[in-house]
Amino acid sequence: MSHTQAVAAAALDATKQTLTQTLTDAKNPVNAKIKAKWPNDLVVETSDIKASDINSRDIKGGIKKLAGMLTETVTASNNDVSCDTSKDTVTAVVVGLGLNLAPIPEMPTAISLQELGVTTTVDELLAKLLKSLTYYIDNPAQARHTLTTNSATLGHKVQVTQTTGDTFTGTALDLDELGRLIVDTTTGTRVIEAADVERLHSHNSHY
């Protein structure tokens, strides 16, 4: 994986692992599977969740977004940062993560930890996240493995909208060693580095 995508995949995967453990520790957890939606979301498939498990609102309806992440590569002078290097400039990846701790009634496509039976604090989650993140940054191949085996995208027909505006459909097959999405289309295999990807269902509806 590239430097940026390795950190992105590690942060995304570490968050999933952290939340999975949090759900396991919860006193009254909801039977929900947290999955990675390429390129940068954590989602919950709600089709198997019983309505009686949810007290706050109806969260049925397919895939709900639990968390999202953005990354940006920045370059700074070594004089401005504390870094053990002889280089004049330092390249770093800034990772931003948004995670829903409480319900967001005005966003029907979202879901929160509270709705999954999890009561936790930001500090507790952050401590687990940083511990997991360190491991996956050092082991990008393991991050890729876990992402591919817990994917909400791979194996499904998808609609891909690239940054150029180009839109096409195909089947999401795999992630390559750089974390790019491999899509099988009617005109051949395409490798996607950055795009908006939505799963297609009956009558070309998507989520």
Fold topology:
Blueprint: H1 3-25, E1 33-37, E2 41-45, E3 63-77, E4 89-99, H2 122-138, H3 140-149, E5 157-162, E6 167-175, E7 181-185, E8 188-192, E9 195-199
Antiparallel strand pairs: 1-2, 2-3, 3-4, 5-6, 5-9, 6-7, 7-8
Keywords:
SH3 type barrels, 2 domains, 207 residues, single chain, 24% helix, five-stranded antiparallel beta sheet, 9 strands, alpha+beta, BirA Bifunctional Protein, domain 2
Question: What report would you give on this structure?
Answer:
The protein has helices at 3-25, 122-138, 140-149; strands spanning 33-37, 41-45, 63-77, 89-99, 157-162, 167-175, 181-185, 188-192, 195-199. By secondary structure, it is α+β, with helices and mostly antiparallel strands. It has 2 domains: 3-149, BirA Bifunctional Protein, domain 2 (2-Layer Sandwich); 157-204, SH3 type barrels. The strands form 2 sheets. A 5-stranded antiparallel β-sheet has the order 8-7-6-5-9, with no helix packed on it. A 4-stranded antiparallel β-sheet has the order 1-2-3-4. α1 (3-25) crosses α3 (140-149).
